[in-house]
């Protein structure tokens, strides 16, 4: 037989291969591929090139002065100075006519798309002089604006999404507060602090992927996910709003809950800050910050009209709803370290570090006028902390001062440290300042939320003291009481004032409940290894917790009355954190609140009767539950006895017709023994 040539072998192999492929194709005729490209190659498709790539970092600036070649360099310097503050400029192009004159518009290319967006937002309508105002657009928007249809068509009406009642919790008939409990594996529970036992309202697994928090007025519950932020509300905690912001790590609300700021890290170590309008879900403004991921980079005024942030030797104040710079320029403050808004007025307090012979300064700045309403020079300053009283009537600046300073290889060392509290009287003419000097180390400071007292923990760690001061109009702070030899680290005032918890966190867990009206100790107790302490918004209850995030063993949370009486203990190995649901400020005037307190005795008997009825109801429920269990047990026992009696004939047959159900039924196999032993011996001696 003749051998096949190599080419024939190859053809036979290919023919077999094709036949196999045809068979496979026939087998897969009914196969349906239901996996989308996004599901299969989602990460890769996100990186695919876009039409806008390469041009989304370019802006077009119109309204630029038309100048001759002699003035061109001067114009370029001015333009670069204005637009370089938004980011690094890679290229710029100035179109010119045949005679070398600029045409009145330019192209600027930034390194980042975010810089281009910021330039459009901040510099659009920027007035260079009386005759020239900048009009700025992204180059990628040129096609969109160029292809506007000639015939206008009205937009399609969208159905209005009905929102649940977001303030339902304020109409709770017994004014019970809510709180959430965060457990391991993102197991979230929302409870109503009812009497005598809390009631579980909602329980959900994997409700969040990282963080959960209430909004400042308690309207929303925010959860963080890889894709962004979700806001929940209403009686059933339904999804109210979704905000897209990838890899979000932290969120912050404006005080009036109009806006939300989302913080997310970028690959280059910076973080992106995005401001959303909560009512519409629209993105209003974004920033790129090189500050560490600690949140609270943007700080809001009390009415949401302004927000501010610190830059390099600058304080930038922005206004809403335009989200542009106030007066279109930042405030130059060389050496600024920190700032804080007044909780009542649109006033900023900031401090500036000392520089050689120039002293440190604490400045009060009025917004929007930018007027310095008070400034105070300070010498030998190492650090300052700004503390506003909740009502905004007083400002305390804690000043860390030194006697000597030593600089070595860029490091600064202080010695001979002592401390001052600079108290600003905000409601008095010219805002006078009083000073309280403390020679000992300061461990904690806290204003009374409603009132004019403040408390400090000072002294050596092994021998701390707690001092209470009172501030009055026209007077220097007065020492009211000093509590010596207190092993403590934190101060927690009641939101209603007067009562305070002096606590030691994460060691002994010592708790001392003090009434500052006469400085009597209502209760001294402990929650061992306590890591968190939080008052409820009404000042009636205190929650202490031992978080599994910070310690091991005996984790859980306890709820106390404001007097220090333990009400409920919830010990669980999965407990991580709890937070009370905030309440908005009362709508009652100061006079109405005062009249309500005076007439409180009229309603005391009604409240006590209601509490007794509630306790009686709870007792009745417990009794009914026990009776039900006893009845079920008796029914079960009766059924088993009937079965046992029916099986008696079988037992007799198995046991040779000997009845062994009773002990005395078979007296032949029973042996009786008598055992006597001494139980007790008493000896009485009578003289």
Automatic annotation (TrEMBL):
InterPro entries cross-referenced by the UniProt entry: EIF3B (IPR011400), eIF3B_RRM (IPR034363), Nucleotide-bd_a/b_plait_sf (IPR012677), RBD_domain_sf (IPR035979), RRM_dom (IPR000504), TIF_beta_prop-like (IPR013979), WD40/YVTN_repeat-like_dom_sf (IPR015943)
Region (Disordered) location: 1-24
GO molecular function: RNA binding; translation initiation factor activity; translation initiation factor binding
Segments forming domain RRM: 57-141
Main localization (coarse): cytoplasm
Localization per record: Cytoplasm
Superkingdom per UniProt: Eukaryota
UniProt xrefs under SMART domains: RRM
Membrane spanning stretches: none
Name recorded for this polypeptide: Eukaryotic translation initiation factor 3 subunit B
Organism: Aphis craccivora (Cowpea aphid)
Lineage of origin: Eukaryota, Metazoa, Ecdysozoa, Arthropoda, Hexapoda
């Amino acid at each position: 037989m003749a051998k096949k040539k190599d080419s024939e072998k190859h053809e036979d192999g290919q023919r077999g291969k094709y036949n196999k492929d045809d068979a496979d194709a026939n087998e897969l005729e009914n196969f349906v591929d239901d996996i989308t490209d996004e599901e299969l190659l989602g990460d890769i498709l996100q990186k695919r090139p876009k039409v806008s790539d390469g041009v989304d970092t370019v802006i077009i600036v119109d309204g630029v002065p038309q100048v001759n070649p002699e003035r061109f360099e001067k114009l370029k310097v001015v333009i670069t100075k204005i637009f370089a503050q938004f980011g690094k400029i890679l290229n710029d192009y100035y179109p010119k006519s045949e005679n070398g004159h600029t045409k009145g518009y330019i192209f600027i290319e930034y390194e980042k798309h975010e810089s281009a967006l910021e330039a459009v937002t901040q510099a659009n309508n920027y007035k260079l002089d009386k005759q020239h105002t900048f009009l700025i657009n992204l180059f990628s928007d040129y096609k969109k604006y160029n292809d506007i249809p000639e015939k206008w068509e009205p937009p399609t009406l969208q159905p209005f999404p009905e929102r649940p009642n977001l303030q339902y919790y304020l109409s709770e008939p017994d004014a019970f507060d809510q709180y959430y409990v965060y457990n391991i594996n993102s197991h979230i529970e929302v409870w109503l602090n009812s009497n005598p036992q809390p009631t579980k309202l909602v329980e959900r697994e994997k409700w969040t992927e990282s963080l959960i928090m209430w909004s400042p007025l308690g309207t929303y519950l925010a959860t963080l996910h890889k894709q962004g932020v979700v806001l929940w509300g209403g009686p059933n905690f339904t999804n109210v709003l979704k905000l897209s912001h990838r890899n979000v790590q932290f969120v912050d609300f404006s005080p009036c809950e109009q806006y939300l700021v989302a913080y997310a890290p970028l690959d280059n170590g910076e973080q992106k800050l995005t401001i959303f309008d909560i009512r519409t879900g629209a993105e209003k403004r974004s920033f790129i910050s090189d500050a560490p991921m600690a949140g609270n980079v943007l700080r809001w005024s009390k009415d949401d009209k302004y927000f501010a942030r610190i830059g390099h030797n600058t304080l930038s104040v922005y206004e809403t709803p335009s989200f542009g710079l106030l007066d279109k320029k930042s405030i130059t403050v060389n050496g600024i370290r920190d700032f804080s808004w007044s909780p009542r007025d649109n006033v900023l307090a900031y401090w500036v570090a000392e520089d050689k012979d120039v002293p440190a300064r604490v400045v009060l700045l009025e917004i929007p006028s930018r007027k310095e309403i008070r400034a105070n020079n300070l010498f030998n300053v190492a650090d300052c902390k700004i503390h506003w009283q909740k009502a905004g009537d007083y400002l305390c600046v804690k000043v860390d001062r030194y006697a000597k300073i030593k600089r070595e290889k860029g490091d600064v060392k202080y010695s001979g440290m002592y401390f001052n509290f600079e108290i600003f009287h905000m409601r008095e003419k010219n805002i006078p300042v009083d000073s309280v000097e403390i020679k000992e180390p300061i461990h904690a400071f806290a204003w009374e939320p409603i009132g004019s007292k403040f408390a400090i923990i000072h002294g050596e760690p092994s021998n701390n003291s707690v001092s209470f001061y009172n501030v009055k109009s026209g007077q220097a702070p007065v020492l009211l009481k000093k509590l010596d030899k207190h092993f403590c680290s934190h101060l927690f005032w009641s939101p209603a004032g007067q009562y305070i918890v002096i606590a030691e966190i994460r060691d002994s867990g010592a708790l001392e409940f003090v009434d500052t009206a006469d400085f009597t100790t209502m209760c001294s107790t402990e929650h061992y290894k306590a890591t968190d302490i939080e008052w409820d918004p009404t000042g009636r209850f205190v929650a202490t917790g031992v978080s599994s995030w910070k310690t091991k063993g005996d984790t859980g949370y306890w709820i106390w009355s404001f007097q220090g009486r333990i009400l409920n203990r919830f010990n669980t190995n999965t407990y991580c954190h709890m937070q009370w649901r905030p309440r908005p400020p009362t709508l009652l005037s100061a006079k109405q609140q005062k009249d309500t307190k005076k007439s409180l005795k009229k309603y005391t008997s009604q409240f006590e009767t209601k509490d007794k009825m509630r306790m009686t109801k709870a007792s009745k429920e417990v009794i009914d539950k026990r009776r039900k269990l006893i009845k079920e047990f008796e029914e079960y026992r009766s059924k088993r006895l009937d079965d046992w009696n029916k099986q008696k004939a079988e037992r007799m047959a198995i046991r040779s017709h000997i009845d062994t159900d009773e002990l005395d039924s078979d007296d032949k196999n029973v042996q009786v023994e008598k055992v006597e032993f001494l139980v007790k011996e008493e000896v009485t001696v009578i003289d």
